[in-house]
Amino acid sequence: MCKTAKRIIFTLVAVLLAAAILLTATVGILWGKEIATIMSIEMLLDENKDQKAAPVYIMDVKGDYYFDDFIKQGGASNDGELIEFILDNVTKGIVPIDISAPEIGCSSFTAVDEEGNRYFGRNYDFSTSSAMIVRTNPKDGRYASISSVDLQFLGIENGAKIDSLMDKFISLAATYAPLDGINEAGVACGIYMSYQGIEDEAVATDQTTEKPDLTSTTMLRLILDYAGSVEEAVELVKQYDLHDSAGTSFHYMVADSTGKSAILEWVNATDATDTDGTKRELKVYYNDSDSVLGENEGSNNFQYITNFIVTPGYYTNEGDMKGLDRYDEIESMINPDGSNTEGVISKDYALDILERVGRRKWDSLSGESDANGITVWSSLYDLTNKRVIWVSNEQFDNEEAIFYFDFSYLK
């Protein structure tokens, strides 16, 4: 081979190598954190068709996931704007996503054990659906958090497995769709359908003031990222207009390690006339000053929530209060004779409550059922020690379906 040919081949190889290095560097710059996040996705539990249980995954989010940028731009006033932001920033416009909110039925409560450890329990009721534990560590003045996500909210439906690269990229949006979680400051929060509207026609909260905007799950992400207490969470929420996702309505409960908790809901007039989501206003009911809600609520220093609006005088028909039976059961299990107003119970008993009002157990006890026939997960947040016990699909007797999380991953 002549020297000229060798020189040409050498030059070509050098150019190709340089191009490969440049491409690798470009991908690393544009996708480095996202690729690292995708690589962290792990299946914790495979599907169990006999149990109608879908897979459970965990994902460690690398970097700040652009939530600061989302807040600085004024948030989003609808799902379309949220999807546009995620496409532009998280999936770089390459991977399409969808965000929706099916009709869900859930419950939560707060409690304390004899050692003074504070708890926040939560059942997420729906149907067979894949779940993901999302762990974040933004490191920019925001709090690290552990949250639970229903992947059906992102369009991964029917309990499907995350097998394809496309599904893994879609999972990057999970940071923007938490349904409950705890942050490293010991603040926990959950979101629950409130079924506002007439004759099962849901009316979403859609406030239209001059405030910046947040959708349902990004409001919860705001609390997890920025709130160091219940008071801080409420003050943060007051700064935004809420725009509920997917044409439905939600309310929230938030609690912290001091024993403080609050129910947050957006209402206008009464159930029969609450048909304009733009006119709804935030109502906040704290656990230590909620006697307006009722005699039991006023005497109890713990709180509990299901799927009806607790604002006094909202309903004219008790039959419209979805989840009232589970609401009453939680209260009676924690304070059966009126003497346990502080809500002192054991950790194991807190899990028993979650099991009892889980949909399979509850439907069998009550003889009634609805579309939300499964509790996809039960999460018990230890706000004092910043730990989580997470149970998949009501499998309280199956150690393989029970997971324990804490913030040791930050070390």
Brief characterization of the structure:
This protein starts with a helix and ends in a 5-residue tail after the last strand.
Give the key terms:
Penicillin V Acylase, Chain A; 10 helices; alpha+beta; six-stranded antiparallel sheet; 411 residues
SSE series: HEEHHEEEEHEEEEEHHEEEEHEHHHEEE
Radius of gyration: 23 Å
Structural class: alpha+beta
Oligomer: single chain
Low-confidence stretches: 5-29
Residue fraction in strands: 15-25%
Explain this structure:
This protein has 411 residues and is of the alpha+beta class. It has a domain at 93-125 and 185-410: Penicillin V Acylase, Chain A. Helix content is 28%, strand content 24%. It has ten helices and 19 strands. A nine-stranded mixed beta sheet has the order 1-2-5-6-7-8-13-14-15. Strands 16-3-4-17-18-19 form a six-stranded antiparallel beta sheet, with helices on one face.
SSE layout and pairings?
Layout: H1 3-40, E1 42-45, E2 56-60, H2 67-72, H3 79-89, E3 105-112, E4 118-126, E5 131-136, E6 145-150, H4 165-170, E7 180-183, E8 188-193, E9 197-198, E10 201-202, E11 213-215, H5 216-226, H6 230-238, E12 241-243, E13 250-255, E14 261-267, E15 281-286, H7 295-299, E16 304-305, H8 324-334, H9 347-356, H10 359-366, E17 374-382, E18 387-392, E19 402-406
Parallel strand pairs: 2-5, 11-12
Antiparallel strand pairs: 1-2, 3-4, 3-16, 4-17, 5-6, 6-7, 7-8, 8-13, 9-10, 13-14, 14-15, 17-18, 18-19
Helix pairs in contact: 5-6
